[in-house]
Amino acid sequence: MTKITDVRLRRVLDSRGNATVEADVATESGGFGRAKAPSGASTGEFEAIELPVNEAIAAAREEAVPRLIDDVFAGDQRGVDATLRAADGTDDFSTIGANSAVAISMAAAKAGADVAGLPLFQHLGGTFRGDTFPVPLGNVIGGGEHAADATHIQEFLAAPVGAPSVQEAVFANAAVHQAAGELLEERGVPSAKGDEGAWAPAIDDSEAFEVMAEAVERVENDVGFEIKFGLDMAGAELYDSDAGVYQYGDKSRDTDEQIEYVADLVAEYDLVYVEDPLDENDYEAFAELTERVGDRTLVCGDDLFVTNVERLETGIEADAANSILVKPNQIGTLSDAVDAVELAIENGYDPVISHRSGETEDTTIAHLAVATDAPYIKTGTVGGERTAKLNELIRIEQNA
Ligand code: PGA
Ligand code: ZN
To answer: What is the pTM assigned to this prediction?
Structure first.
């Protein structure tokens, strides 16, 4: 292992045209890694703190960089991440920003892989991991916080569960996206795309279900393997905590009605995946839904768990879900994200490694999904910042 000799931070563009943090990590033996932080729009209340980019860079330069240089080994990811935590001194990275922390953490991992001469997934996963491939969940139609005047449900996700390879799964999702676009056109609904490249038509959720079901069926018949679909409801964004109801435009549902609604959707559309069906504070309602549909579908906590092992422990205690979304920038370091994955797997929860709505061409999450043998990855369907990860998965699968 060689020591980190330089850490550089700069302000670069993300896919929404906002600023984000890019980190370069160099080692004494000439190893190098570069990574960029993503950024959410429908962020969970309990996520680590993303600071304004200039502030995050200045604070990390002041607090973290001096502690990393000439002291920490690039291949020692736990050491790098513990140093970031110690330098920050808070639980939520509010001193240096989770955006600076995650960019440095991921860049150090890439430098460590470079020094070891290994692909990143192998460096992160070790010898006994990395031999199964995740099913990509592809955002096809969406709205919520990711697009104005579109569906209330944030994401309708294709799930090519029967695909024989990552490559075929990736292309199946793209075909479902294309088919949905054609179906929308046939219905006379002009549609732009939202932040993650999903169609963002001004239709109600029930029409989106029709289009999705038809698009999936069309492509399933074409490719000859099973394709299902699922949802990210981003329940915390729908929930009006003052009124205690989930608001869908003019229509509202109280918590019992929401549970009923989601259970009905799972049955009607044979959904394989439902993320954040309920509010991020309501472990109890999550548990009730999981009790009803958890044997048939993944009930996944995103804003509920925010990649945080303490919140996941609470969820496991309460039988709140059977799956966790894992976003490294929600918690701030790769070590913390891997801790969440491991706790999930030990307790029979399926980890789903995920992008954010604001992304970059960074491909770390593709490697993280393979390194942890995660059964699913959520990283979009089309758009350069999404295909960067999908194409990397194809390359990893082919050992390229
Ligand atoms: P975000 O959305 O990145 O805007 O938080 C993604 C999600 O909710 O899964
Ligand atoms: Zn989500």
So the answer is: 0.98
